[in-house]
Amino acid sequence: MGYLVTILYIVAFSMFIYGLSGLTGPKTAVRGNYIAAVGMLVAVVAVLIDVRNTDNWLLIAGGLLVGVVLGVPPALRTKMTAMPQLVALFNGVGGGTVALIAWAEFLNSDGFTAVEAVPSAPFIIGSLFAAIIGSVSFWGSLVAFAKLQELLNKKVEKVFVSNAKAFQLANMILALVSVGLAVYIGLNADGDPQSSLLILGLLVAAGVMGLFVVLPIGGADMPVVISLLNALTGLSAAAAGLALNNQAMIVAGMIVGASGTILTNLMAKAMNRSIPAIIFGSFGGEDAAAGGASASGGTVKATSAADVAIQMAYANQVIVVPGYGLAVAQAQHAVKEMASLLEARGVEVKYAIHPVAGRMPGHMNVLLAEADVEYDAMKEMDDINGEFSRTDVSIVIGANDVTNPAARNDPSSPIHGMPILNVDESRSVIVLKRSMSSGYAGIENPLFFADTTSMLFGDAKKMVSAVTEELKAL
């Protein structure tokens, strides 16, 4: 049976790796997910075989049932708009589970005194590392979920963001406390009842640090934060696997940790910001004036669905730039219908996807794919930026910060240096927005006040549908 468990573990993490490789392309992503899911099922079966002599089958069955009940319904019911929140929440649950495992192993081993593993150092170090990182990931992910779900009061959130320096100091103190407690517990594993209080203190200190790390981070940085928290959860799972001598947990955790770290680094580069700058700093600003005047004195030009339809109908090329506003309005199907009408008239339609558009990596790609937009029509920033100067009309649907020319032109802007989509180089720009409020970063966008830009105000789905109807009437 021992050999069978080992073989099943090898099969499981081989499927994890193969499934992850499928996520490199949209055409193979679904298949990759299914393969990785089957690999996880194989790993669960291997664990059940490994603990076949246990007397706790009722608890195991109960745990499996709770997992299914709490996991499947939200995954089925959650709209694509709220997928970032679901990812943040599920990621947090993983980190919290690892922290609880570490606590349980501490109690089960009588404060690390009854360690069966030889040598005991991997067990103790792995458990304590998992406790710290798992707690940080759990509580940090809960804050990320609350921010994405807009459960936090905006005024309260601004207080946290504006006091980022104070939270940095608090986090350094909490990190020292957590590591100090871990070192003390690890070096003084004597089964003393006081150790139970110390491990609780460690979990609390790490948990508060998780809260304090994410609370001051600005909204525009949340995609990077979600990716980073995902990497931390993977590392904590690997540490727990080291403590439990579970090869599947070690390999799966390292895969998640490594891929999450790579993705975090890529997204930070896409924003031209270092990861420490994101974690230890934030940016934000005041909204643009509701009346349509910018802080610099510019004004906006409103347009109508009929005018937009005429502009696009007689264009050679149209580029659609989706953002979180498209997701909120669930406008992807309406955009696809509009694009089909334009293509029937001989207009070439492309989609420009910024790496951090939306609230999580790949958010826009998933939404457009759901509406059967061809994968080849979705262009990454580096591939599409050279096209804007040859584009007749760019239509921006809810994308604020990733189209802000201040990132390129204004050295005083907090986002200066961040690579953006060069929408402002188009011959004409149409921006769909509900109002003149700023983007998630809280920074005014000069694009809205440019001479070549017209604003189409209203719900993105309704406005795109109105443009579609006007196209049909032409």
UniProtKB/TrEMBL annotation:
Its EC number is 7.1.1.1. The keyword Transmembrane applies. It is an enzyme of class 7 (translocase). Keywords: Cell inner membrane, Cell membrane, Membrane, NAD, NADP, Translocase, Transmembrane, Transmembrane helix. InterPro entries: DHS-like_NAD/FAD-binding_dom, NADH_DH_b, PNTB-like. SUPFAM superfamilies: DHS-like NAD/FAD-binding domain (SSF52467). It is a multi-pass membrane protein. It holds the Pfam family PNTB. It is found in: Cell inner membrane. It catalyses: NAD(+) + NADPH + H(+)(in) = NADH + NADP(+) + H(+)(out). Residues 6-469 form the NADP transhydrogenase beta-like domain. It comes from the Bacteria. The chain crosses the membrane at residues 6-25, 32-51, 57-76, 83-103, 123-145, 166-185, 197-217, 224-244, 250-268. Its main location: membrane. Belongs to the PNT beta subunit family. The transhydrogenation between NADH and NADP is coupled to respiration and ATP hydrolysis and functions as a proton pump across the membrane. This is NAD(P) transhydrogenase subunit beta.
